[in-house]
């Protein structure tokens, strides 16, 4: 089994290296500096193994730090008893994560190459890599749980139990998945159980994480300890079943079958395409009074309204409910007004990351590609500058309108909450907050559409083939995340956001107008 793991590790690294070289060769300037001979460089492969090992070691902690910091520490630190809240949130999110992220059958190309091209033993490959995954998870959790637990003032003894809870829950659910899949290998849902059942159980655990702490309650540390001991006992039997399971090749063959995946489409790609295609409106009476590309765009938007507007409407409804609750808390909870007022005046920058996440632009551009551009870019007339620029303008208008639905709720709700919670002596802050949020929404709408047209990242199989697109999106996220906890005065933050958004829109329009006809194409 150890020998199989070594082979699989080397293969995975070689695949990653080749993928990175391919991505770098897609960048405009760098591609001229990288010869094709790099793919066969043995020295580069050995160097890459070392770099990959170091990178994986860093990511073991970095990934857990981001997860625990955002999902556990940040909300827990706002509670009256941060220590108990931290333990409660972490415990229930651990149960939820064990269901949705068990790691055994995550599909990837290197798995197919290892088991079905190089003929590595499917059981040895699957089990050894799963043990490696569990060990990485445990190591990452130990360090980060103790670090953030100490910052919250939590009982470190109980916090030290949580990594064992993680390593107990995952094998249990994996075992149950294997029991189910061994009889129901009928779909590509690699976790095995019906999506609705998994979602329902997950929702219960997530509610258990946050609802009690909001009400001032939390699970006792002793209960966490007892639950973990019971889970560890159950996981011992579960792991025994995992090691002795004989049907891995059949399951992996189905998940990674080249006829199912066409060896050009990952499972996630198939799901994405299926989701977008299944939500197309089939009403033959859908029409438009417009003409030309305006007609083409309006018909597309109407037929895809489920995808393009449904999530925005849900987010808008949730935001309305949140503001209603906060307004109620302002009146019925004595200390709430002071907290709300202070938070708004000192933490407006947190809205940048919120606007990043509620931006529907990326989902909309994916739908545009899967159900329209994926096919239409094969036709010469569709790639003409006039056609590209015409559709760019029409689509941008639609994305701006969709993103403004939740943005307007926030833009109106924040100044209202500020006023009701005690207000501010500077009356100019109310309109400034409103226009700042609208400017953020406008920026993310334009940013998403311009990136799509300038760095169109997908090939005909919906695979991401442009490293620059991913790099720019990652940089955007980290800038939003970095600004999130900065105590920037509202006046400075608001003026900077409004000015930057205005300049960005003007510059990006100019660049898109000149370059989009050349860059908007299918990747290879």
Describe this structure in words.
The protein has helices spanning 2-24, 42-76, 82-100, 109-117, 122-152, 156-159, 162-181, 195-214, 221-244, 248-256, 258-261, 267-278, 292-303, 305-332, 336-346, 351-358, 361-376, 385-420, 429-454, 467-484, 490-519. With 524 residues, it is mainly α. Helix 5 (122-152) packs antiparallel against helix 7 and helix 16 packs antiparallel against helix 20. The longest helix has 36 residues, at 385-420. The radius of gyration is 25 Å and the shape is globular.
SSE layout and pairing:
Elements: H1 2-24, H2 42-76, H3 82-100, H4 109-117, H5 122-152, H6 156-159, H7 162-181, H8 195-214, H9 221-244, H10 248-256, H11 258-261, H12 267-278, H13 292-303, H14 305-332, H15 336-346, H16 351-358, H17 361-376, H18 385-420, H19 429-454, H20 467-484, H21 490-519
What are the defining features of this structure?
single chain
Provide a brief overview of the structure.
By secondary structure, the chain is mainly α. The chain is built from 21 helices and no strands.
In DSSP terms (H or I, runs of 4 or more residues), the helix count works out at 21
Overall residue-averaged pLDDT value: 79
Strand content: under 5%
Unreliable segments of 5+ consecutive residues = 184-192, 259-267
As a whole number of angstroms, the C-alpha radius of gyration is 25 Å
Major β-sheet annotation:
none
Topology pattern, helix = H, strand = E: HHHHHHHHHHHHHHHHHHHHH
Number-wise, the strands total 0
Fraction of residues in H or I helices: over 70%
Distance between the termini: 37 Å
Secondary structure category: mainly alpha
Q: What is the approximate shape? A: globular
